Amino acid sequence: MKFHLVNKSLDKDQFSEILTIIRSENGSSVLGNLSSKNTRDYLNIVVENKNMELFVILNPNIIGYAIIASKPDNLTKNFEKLKFKIFIDLFFKLKFFTLTNIAISLLNIDTLFLDKQNKHLINKSVNLNLLAIEKKFQGQGLGSSFLKFIIQSTKFKTDFITCETDNLRSTNFYMKKLKFNIIGNKIRVPKIFKVLIKKIN
């Protein structure tokens, strides 16, 4: 088992392995709703962008992945050249909730339930956008070890890391296994997302 920061474009097999995990474990995310081509373009932008990083777990194939951004707003800013393709992709798949959530985020409506201090804290923190491990490898402590590696290896140095979840299972994982705390909610449809934070320095 090995943890690795990806620093070059994914080959066909690597992409296929990550795509399988995205579809099974992050199906409700924006990434989980895109076509294979747009997902690949998205991941390659992450790898090439100085404000984002892609980490993987190798065994020897990829069995887990995580995407982090130096700040939460980089998740929308860095995909300008893909925005039309993403819109068309989601529109023709009738993913109207996903499109609505992107609009809510772009208009900063999603943070209405967060107090000023927590908004400021989130905006200064590294954002763990997605973390997922293949189902048969879950429950073995890999998530904790993987996050520890990410925190130690990332070039983004800050005092806090944040993430968002839309279900109780993920919330419990982040709180019980990874020691995050809930600091508020973000508006999403049809569910409200929990915003979690962890002090790392």
Write the layout of secondary structure elements.
Layout: E1 2-6, H1 12-25, H2 36-48, E2 52-58, E3 62-69, H3 74-77, H4 83-92, H5 96-106, H6 116-124, E4 126-133, H7 142-153, E5 160-165, H8 168-177, E6 181-186, E7 193-199
Parallel strand pairs: 4-5
Antiparallel strand pairs: 1-2, 2-3, 3-4, 5-7, 6-7
**In the CATH classification, which architecture applies?**
3-Layer(aba) Sandwich
Structural class: alpha+beta
SSE run: EHHEEHHHHEHEHEE
Over all CA atoms, what is the radius of gyration? 16 Å
- Domain count, please report it: 1
Number of strands: 7
Strand content: 15-25%
Order of strands in the sheet with most strands: 1-2-3-4-5-7-6
Indicate the mean pLDDT: 93
**Stretches with pLDDT under 50, minimum 5 residues:** none
Instruction: Specify the number of helices.
Output: 8
Helix share bin = 40-55%
CATH class placement: Alpha Beta
Give a structural overview:
The protein has 201 residues and is of the alpha+beta class. It has one domain: Aminopeptidase, CATH 3.40.630. The protein is built from 8 helices and 7 strands. It has helices spanning 12-25, 36-48, 74-77, 83-92, 96-106, 116-124, 142-153, 168-177, and strands at residues 2-6, 52-58, 62-69, 126-133, 160-165, 181-186, 193-199. A 7-stranded mixed beta sheet has the order 1-2-3-4-5-7-6, with helices on both faces. Strand 4 (126-133), helix 7 and strand 5 (160-165) form a beta-alpha-beta unit. The mean pLDDT is 93.
